[in-house]
Design goal:
The complex is a heterodimer of chains A (461) and B (223). Chain A is α+β, with helices and mostly antiparallel strands. Helix content of chain A is 53%, strand content 23%. Chain A contains 9 helices and 14 strands. In chain A, strands 8, 9, 10, 11, 12, 13 and 14 form a 7-stranded mixed β-sheet that branches. Chain A is rod-shaped. In chain B, the strands form 3 sheets. Chain B has a 5-stranded parallel β-sheet, sandwiched between helices. Chain B has a 4-stranded antiparallel β-sheet with strand order 6-7-8-9. Chain B has a 3-stranded antiparallel β-sheet with strand order 10-12-11. Classes of the chains: A alpha+beta (461), B alpha/beta (223).
Chain lengths: 461, 223
C-alpha cells in the first residue's frame, strides 16, 4: 500500500513541480508585458502633453518662449496620486519655465522624437519624457526641449493589477490541470490497484492466475506475478508430496519399531526376546538415521530458499567440513584421503553453501560405509578445469549400475536397506549450487560421485 | 564421574541417565535452565550434557555464563535442531561437542568418554584409557604395564593428541606445537614422527588415523 501511495505522490509532485516552473516563467513574462503595457498607455499621455506644450512654443523678441496650456498638464494629472514635474529649456540649457533641477541624461541631444527614461527623482521613481522642437524665425534658430515627468505609482499599480489577474487565472488553470493529473494517475494505476485487490482478497489456497486484461505497460508485471504464483504452487505441491512421503516413511519406520518391541514383550522365550530386542534396536537406529536425513534434506531445501551462497574456495570448505564429519566415522575401518590438484595460490572460487556441501559429503561417506564392506576406502578429490571445479568422491563399495543412476537420485528410492535419501540430498545440494551431478564407476571399484561447480570471478590475488 | 544432565524431555533424560549410570557415572538431572544454572554455580561437575531449548534459560545462556565465570567444565550440547548454524554457535560459544537428536545412546556414551578423557588428560598428570597409562609428569607411557619408550618429542606429540582427541590436526598444527621456530621441520619429519609414535602405541587403545591430504585425528578405540 505504501508503495502505491508513493507512486501516486511521486507523479503528482513531479507534475506540480513542472507546473510551478511553467508558472514562474510565465509570471516573469507577464510582469515585463504588464510593465510595457502600462508604460505604453501612460507614455501616450506624456507624449500628448509634451506635444501640446511644444505646439505653444514660439519665438519672441526676447528669444524662445512658451505658454503652457494647462489642459495639457491636467491630462497627465488624471492619475490622482501621481506627481507631475515639467521643465521647458532651450538648447543651451536655460530653463524657460518649470523645475530647474530635473535630471537630463548626459548624452541627450535635442530631437523631435520623444525620449523616455526612468530615474529616481525627489525620492520617487519617475518616468520622464524629453521631446524637442526646432524653433526658427526672428533671428532665432535652435531647439527648445520640453521635459515632463510623472511618478510611477499609477503605472506600477496598473501593471500589478494586470499581473495579479493573469496569475490568478494561471493558478486556476494549474489547479484544474493537477486535478486532471490526479484523475489520470488514478486511472492509469487502476489496473495495478485491481491486481492488488485480487491478491489481497485471495484465499491462501487459491493459486489461480490473476484475471485482468492489463494495459500493455503492466502486462509483463501481471505475467511475472502469474509466473510466481505458478512456481509457488509447484513448490507447495512438491512440499506436500514431500510431507506425504515423510509421513509415510516415518510412520512405517516407527510402526516397525513398535511392532518389534511389542513382539519382544510378548515373547515367552528369553532367547527369542533378545533377538527381537536386537532387531528393535536396529530398527530404532534406522529410524534415527531416517529422521536425521529427512531433516537434513528439509534443511537443504529450506536453505536454498533463504540463505545466499558465499564465494569460497571449494577445497578449503571441504577441508573445514571434513574435520566435523569424520568424527562420526572414526569407529569404521576407513581410509580417507583428500586431494586437490589446484596450486595453492591460484584459487578458483565457487559460490557455495558450506552446510549444503557438508551434508552432501556426509551422506556420500555415510552411503559408502553403509553399503560397502570394511576396509572402506574413500577418496575425495577437488580438481579444477578452467571454468569448472569438480568435487569427486570415490568409494570402494558395491557401486551402482549405470541403468539405475537416474532412479537412485529420486527420494526414497533405495536399492537395498538404506533410507533412499542420501543421494537425493546430494542431488538437492547439487541443484542448489547449479552443479552437474554425475554418477560413474570409481577406480576404487565402487561408486564415483562427481559434482561439477561453475567457477566464479576467475582467479584472484 | 559426576555428570549434570540438563534436559526437559523426561523420557530422554531417563534413558540417558540409565545408560550413563550403567557406564558407572553419577548423573544429576535438571529440567529447568534457571535451576541448572544455579546448580552449576555452586557445584563442580566433570561433564555437563545440555539441551538448547530449555524452560527458564536457554542452553546457550547457561553455557555463556559458565564460561564467563571461568568454569571450564566440558559441555556437550544435545540439540534437536538440525540447523547446524546453531551447533557452530554452541562450539564457538565454548561448547566442547554437540550431538544431534534423536540421540544414539552408544554414540552419546562414546562422546562423553572422549570429553571426560580429554578433561582428565589435561587436568591430571595421569591419563588412562583401556590398557594405556600415560604419566605426564614422569613422561612415561605404559601399555599393559610395559613401558613404551618415548623420546621427548614423541611425549609432546602424545600429549597433543590426547588433548585433541577426535579433532583433526594438520601436519602444520603438529609442527607448530612440537618444534620451535628455528627448527623449521620438514613435513616429512612430522610424518615420520607420527609413524614412529603410532608404531610404539600399537597394542594400545589410542589410534592415530591418517587422513591423506588433511592431517591426523586421534581417537580411542572402543572396547
Amino acid at each position: 500500500m505504501a508503495v502505491q501511495h508513493s507512486l501516486r505522490q511521486r507523479l503528482l509532485v513531479s507534475m506540480a513541480a513542472g507546473f510551478a516552473i511553467i508558472l514562474v516563467s510565465i509570471a516573469i513574462g507577464i510582469w515585463s508585458y504588464a510593465r510595457d503595457a502600462a508604460n505604453h498607455s501612460y507614455d501616450r499621455l506624456l507624449s500628448g502633453a509634451a506635444f501640446a506644450i511644444l505646439e505653444r512654443t514660439l519665438v519672441t523678441p526676447n528669444g524662445p518662449g512658451v505658454e503652457i496650456p494647462y489642459s495639457a498638464l491636467e491630462m497627465i494629472g488624471l492619475a490622482e496620486s501621481d506627481r507631475v514635474f515639467y521643465r521647458i529649456f532651450a538648447a543651451d540649457g536655460t530653463t524657460l519655465t518649470g523645475s530647474e533641477s530635473l535630471p537630463v541624461p548626459d548624452q541627450y541631444r535635442p530631437t523631435d522624437q520623444p525620449v523616455f527614461f526612468d530615474t529616481r527623482y525627489s525620492g520617487e521613481d519617475v518616468r520622464f519624457l524629453l521631446q524637442g522642437r526646432f524653433l526658427a524665425g526672428a533671428g532665432y534658430g535652435d531647439w527648445v526641449v520640453v521635459q515632463i515627468g510623472q511618478t510611477r505609482i499609477a503605472r506600477d499599480a496598473f501593471a500589478r493589477e494586470m499581473m495579479i489577474n493573469a496569475i490568478a487565472l494561471l493558478l486556476f488553470v494549474t489547479v484544474i490541470g493537477l486535478g486532471f493529473v490526479w484523475f489520470g494517475i488514478n486511472r492509469a494505476l487502476s489496473p495495478l490497484i485491481g491486481i492488488e485487490r485480487q491478491l489481497r482478497h485471495r484465499e491462501p489456497t487459491d493459486f489461480s492466475q490473476i484475471l485482468i486484461t492489463p494495459p500493455r505497460e503492466v502486462a509483463s508485471l501481471t505475467r511475472s506475478i502469474n509466473g510466481l504464483i505458478l512456481r509457488h504452487k509447484k513448490s507447495l505441491d512438491n512440499a506436500q508430496a514431500f510431507i506425504a512421503d515423510v509421513a509415510h516413511q516415518t510412520r512405517t519406520s516407527l510402526g516397525a519399531l513398535h511392532g518389534l518391541l511389542e513382539s519382544a514383550s510378548r515373547q515367552p522365550d528369553a532367547e527369542q526376546r533378545q533377538v527381537r530386542i536386537a532387531q528393535a534396536e536396529e530398527q530404532a537406529e534406522r529410524t534415527i538415521r531416517l529422521t536425521n536425513q529427512l531433516l537434513s534434506h528439509a534443511m537443504i531445501i529450506h536453505r536454498a530458499d533463504n540463505t545466499p551462497l558465499e564465494r569460497k574456495v571449494l577445497i578449503d570448505v571441504i577441508r573445514a567440513v571434513f574435520g566435523d564429519i569424520i568424527r562420526d566415522y572414526l569407529k569404521y575401518d576407513t581410509d580417507f584421503s583428500i586431494e586437490s590438484d589446484g596450486e595453492p595460490d591460484t584459487h578458483t572460487y565457487v559460490m557455495l553453501d558450506e552446510i549444503g556441501i557438508r551434508e552432501a559429503l556426509r551422506n556420500l561417506i555415510d552411503n559408502a560405509i553403509k553399503h560397502g564392506a570394511a576396509p572402506h576406502k574413500i577418496d575425495i578429490v577437488v580438481r579444477s578445469s578452467g571454468s569448472h571445479c569438480h568435487l569427486i568422491v570415490d568409494d570402494n563399495g558395491p557401486g551402482i549400475e549405470g541403468a539405475k543412476h537416474a532412479s537412485v537420485l529420486q527420494r526414497f528410492s533405495s536399492l537395498s536397506t538404506g533410507t533412499g535419501l542420501g543421494l537425493a540430498i546430494v542431488k538437492a545440494v547439487a541443484d542448489r549450487h547449479g552443479a552437474d551431478l554425475n554418477l560413474a564407476q570409481s577406480p576404487n571399484g565402487g561408486l564415483r560421485v562427481e559434482m561439477v561447480f561453475p567457477v566464479v570471478g576467475g582467479a584472484e590475488e | 564421574m559426576r555428570i549434570l544432565l540438563i534436559e526437559d524431555n523426561e523420557t530422554l533424560a531417563e534413558t540417558i541417565t540409565d545408560r550413563l549410570t550403567a557406564d558407572g557415572h553419577a548423573i544429576d538431572c535438571e529440567r529447568d535452565g534457571e535451576l541448572a544454572n544455579d546448580l552449576l554455580r555452586h557445584k563442580q561437575f566433570d561433564l555437563v550434557l545440555m539441551d538448547i531449548n530449555l524452560p527458564g534459560r536457554s542452553g546457550f545462556e547457561i553455557l555463556r555464563s559458565m564460561r564467563a565465570r571461568g568454569d571450564t567444565t566440558p559441555v556437550l550440547i544435545l540439540t534437536a535442531r538440525s540447523e547446524i548454524d546453531d551447533r557452530l554457535i554452541g562450539l564457538d560459544g565454548g561448547a566442547d561437542d554437540y550431538i544431534v537428536k534423536p540421540v544414539d545412546l552408544r554414540e552419546l556414551a562414546a562422546r562423553c568418554r572422549v570429553l571426560i578423557r580429554r578433561r582428565t588428560g589435561a587436568a591430571s598428570n595421569e591419563f588412562r584409557a583401556g590398557n594405556l597409562v600415560f604419566d605426564r609428569a614422569a613422561k612415561i607411557a605404559t601399555i599393559d604395564g610395559r613401558d613404551v619408550e618415548l623420546r621427548n618429542r614423541e611425549v609432546q606429540l602424545l600429549e597433543i593428541f590426547i588433548g585433541n582427541l577426535q579433532r583433526v590436526l594438520t601436519k602444520e598444527d603438529l609442527a607448530d606445537k612440537v618444534y620451535s621456530f628455528d627448527e623449521a621441520p620438514s613435513m616429512n619429519a612430522v610424518e615420520q614422527m607420527v609413524t614412529r609414535l603410532r608404531k610404539k602405541l600399537s597394542g594400545g587403545p589410542i589410534i592415530l588415523k591418517t587422513i591423506r591430504g588433511l592431517g591426523y585425528i586421534a581417537h580411542i578405540a572402543e572396547e
